[in-house]
Amino acid sequence: MELLEEALMCPVCCSLFDDPQVLPCSHNFCKKCLEGILEGSVRNSLWRPAPFKCPTCCKETSATGINSLQVNYSLKGIVEKYNNIKISPKMPVCKGHLGQPLNIFCLTDMQLICGICATRGEHTKHVFCSIEDAYAQERDAFESLFQSFETWCRGDALSCLDTLETNKRKSLQLLTKDSDKVKEFFEKLQYTLDQKKNEILSDFETMKLAVMQAYDPGINKLNTILQEQRMAFNIAEAFKDVSEPIVFLQQMQEFREKIKVIKETPLPLSNLPASPLMKNFDTSQ
Q1: What's the predicted TM-score (pTM) here?
Q2: Predicted confidence (pLDDT) per residue in 228-248, tens digit
């Protein structure tokens, strides 16, 4: 494309040809560029206009005005087609077959494929349909898929996270309460009991650490799952209004795969015990 664009550039303005005119020597220039050259030639001559020379090959021409030159309609058409190609969206290509466009939709696997995938690849003997029909079908499927995923996200994962965080808070509150009781008791004892007090308090810290170790992995895992869910929502929000069939189908495929991975990720257990082992601390001991 870069080499083609270079071939379609005017030698004077170094831009794509705009209404190209051809000189008798077969070199092409923009109409406005030639007008500027002709006007400069007339303005710089004192007595009579100097012979007009081609800016590329310097060959003189008998042209006396821009209207006497011929329009290169073929070149003009090529430039217009090139501009249309640059503006139109790029066709996605197959990852398994280099350079092959994804222009077929496999109904069996619900994904975009190329012609080689359909005739000689893993999709042979599958059911296919046109891009337009697939776009209409997947556009209808998007809302129900999105709503079911949204309901799932708001249910199990959030409920499990809430249960884990509540149990963690209760466990830490119980341990803190017992710890305060132990502190109050040992503050009344003599200095000889300080060593024993420190040993027991150390045991409480160990139990707190055990609670952290029991709950934090599950909570961290759930936070990661929720982050993945938010990313999936962002993906859906970004492409749900896309009207280009190929782009929509490709992103719909990625969205479906993302949902599948999230749903298949097992949630951690939320029924861990909330009561610490030393909740009934006996001061007589």
Answers
A1: 0.34
A2: 888 888 888 888 888 888 888
